[in-house]
Amino acid sequence: MAAKTVFKTFASEKTKGLDFVLSDATPDRYDDIIMSEGWELDNFKKNPIALFGHSGSFPIGKWKNIKIKDGALHGTLELAPVGTSDRIDEIHKLVDADILRAVSVGFTPLEYKERKGDTYGMVYTKQELVECSLVAVPANPNALMVAKQLSISFATRSLVFDKPEIIAVRSRVQQYESLQTEIDAENKWIDQNGKINDPETDERIKKRDALEKKQSDLWTF
């Protein structure tokens, strides 16, 4: 079975202009960690196209200087030149206005394991970068108003602010269903093998409760 592509969105205060931090080893909202030293970049560097919102029909430029530095994955976004198209020109305006400042990496997990202890995310220790997109993150409540003031077209506003929201909801649904499968497996083990004052049973219950919390947190915006 082909490995599934995982997408992770990341916004960093260390991003300056078009020099982005694409990923680092801090836990994300799902408590997953991507180890920076585990990135395999050779194939991506052969065709480092930059997309918007993971849309293969909307290339916006290319990534340069992809490298591991200071414990993080870095890259410089080289946007297509102004004048390429009206939409590219609008993307330039949104980047300059600091509205578009987040990226989302798509990668194939090669080696990974569950985190130990009270947190039940994944640790990706080896992964291949297959795609990297500029994305919108609704962190700034005034972003849409600013976009309108910049005379950004309705079509581009819909693409930037609506489509990522739909993608985010679909991603949460997929995460919810995946977590439910894990919860069901833990409940089945507890029902069939659980014992009072049993360390393994206690650990299984703790894990199930943590998974249920992660499931609940998916809908906390």
Describe this protein's structure.
The protein is an alpha/beta fold. The chain folds into 2 domains: 6-153, no CATH class; 170-217. Helix content is 37%, strand content 31%. It contains 5 helices and 9 strands; from the N terminus they run ββββαβββαββααα. Strands 1, 2, 3, 4, 5, 6, 7, 8 and 9 form a 9-stranded mixed sheet that branches.
Strand elements, count: 9
Annotation field: number of helices: 5
Structural class: alpha/beta
Distance between the termini: 34 Å
Kindly provide the radius of gyration, computed on alpha-carbon positions and rounded to a whole number of angstroms: 20 Å
Q: What is the fold's blueprint, element by element?
A:
Blueprint: E1 6-10, E2 19-24, E3 33-34, E4 39-40, H1 42-46, E5 49-52, E6 55-69, E7 72-79, H2 86-96, E8 102-114, E9 122-135, H3 143-149, H4 154-193, H5 199-217
Parallel strand pairs: 3-9, 4-9, 5-9
Antiparallel strand pairs: 1-8, 2-7, 5-6, 6-7, 8-9
Helix pairs in contact: 4-5
Spell out the key features of this protein.
221 residues; 2 domains; 37% helix; elongated
